[in-house]
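[step 3/7] inverse_fold.run input=structure_tokens len=1143
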């Protein structure tokens, strides 16, 4: 009898969303204690796997923050049986991925790969069969080598530096600063260079091994596999490869017990029940002085009632009640009546395990800062009076309504955009509780009311317990100049920002009169439609992938067209997808796309969007989406996108276009308060775009430099200041007398009668031959530009985007060669640039798609290297790629390079790839939120891009160009090397390169000396050398010795003669020099190629530095563009093709 039959399993009866109805789930526990969930999912060929371990940052020793995170990095460097990086490279070669993350209480390791992928070396077996033994070995016998410690410390530090520029990471750190300092949650969790370099690599290695052996036992782990294989096949894989985990089982400690080990001693800490997370009478407010957009986050500790029977439906009801946007909502009260906020969002945030906060995020106006106490008090008063004193019958009806809404949204939700999302969520929750995994609601996470008639009392109880003045916590993001609370500013140790702690006192707060306030009422038509669809939900089905067969996706069908419009319909014969997606793009050909006109169109959309927030919110509650866009493709235009049920889409479209028409007609006579609010919001958005992080700034600069007609945020800000009533009136007259060109793309059904109302101006008389779309900038052959962006004061990393122009998007052969080259770059860049050259933890590469041109980019953010060094290293890497291709024979080239690339293209993955262009990354200016990113919407968006660009290549994906597999198979080694030699090699005289860089504000040398001063100060403390850190930094800044800063020691010895002997001893031990070596910063101007050859830069085209994008535009050309009359001629040919084809 096989082992798989001996291990008993459980087939749970899960309540599944309809999109998951084809999946089968099985639970089992292996003899070694490993908890497993196996999912047979025939809807995708991708296999995903995740192993979660019940340990994380809470296990860090107090003196080594980040040890758990560092150990996670070391585990992925290889095992005793498989060399470093072998699994990552193998997965990258076939388009898969490998990664891990560490939270407060868990560490998760995961992979994803196509089951169509095969091994190119050997017998051609499935790649899955070869990766599982390696993945298992990483978790069984990791190498944890000392020689990788310093490299991965830099990787952890790079990751932390990225977190410093992440608004959500900074806000989350605000919780830690507010927390009880005796609670383990209050400690820094990620780790950085300072925290992980205070002890030797040898000790770090020893601690990592102790951490691993104490926690990575099968009883402490969970595994989730999901793939198209049968459950029996998945079960055999698990038994074959994961039975060896914990061959010497250990007795696990109780989570609240410390664990003592031999050298070094680890004190693994978990939150003890008797230690409160927050001190009740302690600070309740923290102001974080950051450059991010201002935000007020008000948090309530709902975890205090976690054990309540109806905890989940109670929390959902409160989120719905507080998040309403109708005229009687909290949002309307704070924004329209008080004018304190511009937007409100409500959600539940998990701090760790099952400790949750209900969060109300506010986007404040300027007046909010002087009314902070009133805002918090008004929210609590609204809860206690409007909800807490509501009639029980009324509140029960609302709770039942929201429960039905949530149930409907759960049942009708599409499959996760990223297949890994499900797997990681299940693995975390399975690790916390195997018993919960056997509950019917494990997949959906939806729990209904056990007794709807008790809902009112339960909601009121939670308000009374959790939503009080003494328990509220307030986290504020504010610029340095805003005055909030008059308290002492403190320099944060790890993130670098200043912050202020205070306690809001509500004793003398004013009492607000809510007697006239009511709670929102359910809309009868929404409720009736929702219940009807729930009762007939079996009519909804999901796409079903049959292994080995391509999905027959039909190209959009041209339904109607003339010189004023084109209407397209897209369908998928494999799916009876109930929802509709409709986009209407309206172009105003006779309105010049100037900065002023662009701003006024933004203003029109802003005003209309504000008017639509309330009326469309009920549609949002049932999962519908709406979004307004302006100035698409650098043209004077407005675009509307909606998705949802057919009824919802039609209702939303009619409401949106009626509002747009009304707004346009009274644009110059709009109420002052509404106009002022819209202008303030626009200016805030422009400022955020102008002052974005250096990574975003570099990416945005590529569009300004390489697209024609891009208007910068600075130019928009200047134009906004000049827009007055006269400008608005002039624009309105021009606008209402202009003509419209409509492009309508619908996926699913839409009544024809609805289309007649999709207009703003209503004049469609055709257009002139002289009109054209904006186009792309073409760099001249042999050019090499270095463009330097403006640097923000808090920018602490170097960012380099190395872009190589390839050619026209219409050149199919060139696009295929570039796509193949990008595959080689992406499969080797991580190993070569991150691991071997230690440039950065994050290395990004991809295609950059512009309106008519495209190219290949490599982007590297680094806290340790200058922009010039990063640029040199990328240039050298491009040479290495050419050498690698040259080393293959023709047969090896096809079998080991070309075939794996083809396999990455031939799968049926439903996932959306990374965004590669401006249109792909476009988000609505106003709407219900970010645009959806499911496969149906991605396909719709790709078709829309082709239609608006007049290219009509519908076989393409992700707003790129189609990749002809037959053309790829014909690529020879010689042809590919010619492509590399012409377009990619530094010595090529035909290559065109643009390097966009953002320097650290204080310069990389200053940052390095800051790091060294901190580490040297810590070492001096241990050696009893009494010199403060500021004096050390000052001596370093005055030192000219780049190797070991010997001048700094001489300066310090003169200042502190009584410390001279100890300082000399420290210098002689070369501790300082070793620190610099660990940092790994290149000080030289040139990089050397392998085998001691002279640097390639001697033969490289000279680099031209510039900071004015107009200079590049003047020295470049613009691609030919398509007149709108040519577009009409294309539509005629498409119609003829459709009539003569079986479509």
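[step 3/7] decode complete -> sequence:
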């Amino acid at each position: 009898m096989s082992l798989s039959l001996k291990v008993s399993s459980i087939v749970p009866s899960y309540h599944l969303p309809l999109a998951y109805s084809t999946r089968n789930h099985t639970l089992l526990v292996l003899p070694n204690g490993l908890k497993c969930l196996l999912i047979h999912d025939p809807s995708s060929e991708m296999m995903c796997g995740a192993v979660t371990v019940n340990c994380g940052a809470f296990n860090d020793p107090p003196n080594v923050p980040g040890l758990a995170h560092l150990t996670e990095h070391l585990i992925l460097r290889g095992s005793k049986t498989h060399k470093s990086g072998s699994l990552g490279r193998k997965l990258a070669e076939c388009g898969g991925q490998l990664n891990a993350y560490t939270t407060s209480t868990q560490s998760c390791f995961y992979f994803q790969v196509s089951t169509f992928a095969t091994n190119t070396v050997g017998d051609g077996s499935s790649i899955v069969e070869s990766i599982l033994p390696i993945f298992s070995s990483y978790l069984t016998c990791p190498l944890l080598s000392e020689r990788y410690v310093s490299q991965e410390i830099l990787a952890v530090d790079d990751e932390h530096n990225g977190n410093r520029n992440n608004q959500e990471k900074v806000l989350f750190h605000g919780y830690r600063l507010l927390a009880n300092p005796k609670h383990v949650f209050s400690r820094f969790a990620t780790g950085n260079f300072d925290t992980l370099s205070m002890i030797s690599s040898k000790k770090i290695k020893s601690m990592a091994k102790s951490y691993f052996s104490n926690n990575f036992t099968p009883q402490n782990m969970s595994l989730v596999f999901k793939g198209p294989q049968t459950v029996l096949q998945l079960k055999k894989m698990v038994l074959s490869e994961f039975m060896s985990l914990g061959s010497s089982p250990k007795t696990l400690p109780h989570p609240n017990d410390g664990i003592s080990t031999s050298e070094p001693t680890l004190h693994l800490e978990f939150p003890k029940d008797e230690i409160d997370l927050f001190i009740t009478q302690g600070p309740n407010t923290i102001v974080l002085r950051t450059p991010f957009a201002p935000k007020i986050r008000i948090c309530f500790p709902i975890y205090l009632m976690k054990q309540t029977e109806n905890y989940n439906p109670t929390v959902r009801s409160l989120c719905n009640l507080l998040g309403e946007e109708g005229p009687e909502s909290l949002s309307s009260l704070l924004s329209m009546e008080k004018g304190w906020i511009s937007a409100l969002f409500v959600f539940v945030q998990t701090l760790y395990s099952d400790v949750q906060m209900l969060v109300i995020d506010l986007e404040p106006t300027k007046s909010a800062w002087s009314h902070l106490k009133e805002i918090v008090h008004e929210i609590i008063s609204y809860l206690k009076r409007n909800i807490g004193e509501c009639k029980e019958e009324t509140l029960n009806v609302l709770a039942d309504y929201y429960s039905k809404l949530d149930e409907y949204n759960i049942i009708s939700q599409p499959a996760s955009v990223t297949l890994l999302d499900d797997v990681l969520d299940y693995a975390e929750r399975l690790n916390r509780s195997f018993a919960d995994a056997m509950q019917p609601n494990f997949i959906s996470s939806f729990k209904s009311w056990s007794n709807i008639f008790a809902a009112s009392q339960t909601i009121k109880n939670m308000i009374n317990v959790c939503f009080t003045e003494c328990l509220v916590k307030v986290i504020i993001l504010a610029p340095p100049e805003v005055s909030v609370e008059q308290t002492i500013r403190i320099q944060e140790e790890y993130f670098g920002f200043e912050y202020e702690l205070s306690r809001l006192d509500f004793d003398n707060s004013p009492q607000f009169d809510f007697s006239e306030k009511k709670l929102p009422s359910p809309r009868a038509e929404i409720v009736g439609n929702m219940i009807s669809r729930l009762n007939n939900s079996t009519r909804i089905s999901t796409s079903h992938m049959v292994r080995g067969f391509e999905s027959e996706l039909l190209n959009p069908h041209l339904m109607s067209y003339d010189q004023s419009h084109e209407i397209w319909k897209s369908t998928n014969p494999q799916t009876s997808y109930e929802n509709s997606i409709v986009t209407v793009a309206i172009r105003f050909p006779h309105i010049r796309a100037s900065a002023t006109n662009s701003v006024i169109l933004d203003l029109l959309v802003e005003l209309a969007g504000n008017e639509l927030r309330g009326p469309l919110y009920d549609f949002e509650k049932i999962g519908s989406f709406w979004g307004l866009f302006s100035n698409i493709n650098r043209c004077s235009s407005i675009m509307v996108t909606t998705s949802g049920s057919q009824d919802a889409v039609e209702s939303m479209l009619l409401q949106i276009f009626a509002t747009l028409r009304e707004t346009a007609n009274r644009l110059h006579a709009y109420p002052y308060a509404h106009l002022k609010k819209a202008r303030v919001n626009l200016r805030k958005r422009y400022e955020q775009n102008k002052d974005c992080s250096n990574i975003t700034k570099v990416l945005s600069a590529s569009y300004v430099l390489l697209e024609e007609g891009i208007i910068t945020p600075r130019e928009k800000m200047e134009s906004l200041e000049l827009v007055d009533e006269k400008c608005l009136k002039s624009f309105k007259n021009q606008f209402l007398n202009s003509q419209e060109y409509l492009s309508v793309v619908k996926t699913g059904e839409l009544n024809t009668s609805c289309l007649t109302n999709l207009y703003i101006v209503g004049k469609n008389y055709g257009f002139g031959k002289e009109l054209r779309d904006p186009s792309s900038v073409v760099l001249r052959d042999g050019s090499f530009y270095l463009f330097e962006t403006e640097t923000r004061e808090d920018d602490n990393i170097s960012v380099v985007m190395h872009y190589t122009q390839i050619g026209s998007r219409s050149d199919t052969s060139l696009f295929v060669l570039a796509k193949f080259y990008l595959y080689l770059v992406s499969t080797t860049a991580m190993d070569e640039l991150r691991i071997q050259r230690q440039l950065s933890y994050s290395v990004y590469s991809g295609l950059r798609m512009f309106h008519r041109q495209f190219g290949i980019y490599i982007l590297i953010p680094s806290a340790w290297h200058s922009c010039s060094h990063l640029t040199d290293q990328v240039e050298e890497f491009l040479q290495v790629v050419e050498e690698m291709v040259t080393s293959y024979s023709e047969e090896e080239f096809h079998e080991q390079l070309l075939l794996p690339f083809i396999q990455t293209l031939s799968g049926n993955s439903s996932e959306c790839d990374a965004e590669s262009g401006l249109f792909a990354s476009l988000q609505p200016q106003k709407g219900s939120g970010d645009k959806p990113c499911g496969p149906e919407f991605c396909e719709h968006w790709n078709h829309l891009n082709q239609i608006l660009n007049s290219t009509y290549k519908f076989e393409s994906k992700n707003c790129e160009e189609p990749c002809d597999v037959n053309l790829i198979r014909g690529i020879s080694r010689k042809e590919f090397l010619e492509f590399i030699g012409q377009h990619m090699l530094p010595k090529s005289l035909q290559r065109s390169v643009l390097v966009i860089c953002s320097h650290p504000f204080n310069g990389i040398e200053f940052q390095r000396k800051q790091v060294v001063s901190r580490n040297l100060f810590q070492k001096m403390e241990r050696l009893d050398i009494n010199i403060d850190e500021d004096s050390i930094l000052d001596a370093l800044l005055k030192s000219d010795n780049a190797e070991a800063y010997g001048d700094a020691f001489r300066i310090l010895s003169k200042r502190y003669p009584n410390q001279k002997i100890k300082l000399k001893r420290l210098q002689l031990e070369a501790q300082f020099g070793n620190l610099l070596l660990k940092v790994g910063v290149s000080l030289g101007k040139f990089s050397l190629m392998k085998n001691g050859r002279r640097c390639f830069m001697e033969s490289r085209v000279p680099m031209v530095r510039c900071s004015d994008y107009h200079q590049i535009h003047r020295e470049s050309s613009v691609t030919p563009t398509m007149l709108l009359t040519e577009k009409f001629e294309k539509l005629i040919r498409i119609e003829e093709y459709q009539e003569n084809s079986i479509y």
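[step 4/7] annotate
The CA atoms of residues 881 and 944 lie 36 Å apart.
The two ends are 54 Å apart (CA to CA).
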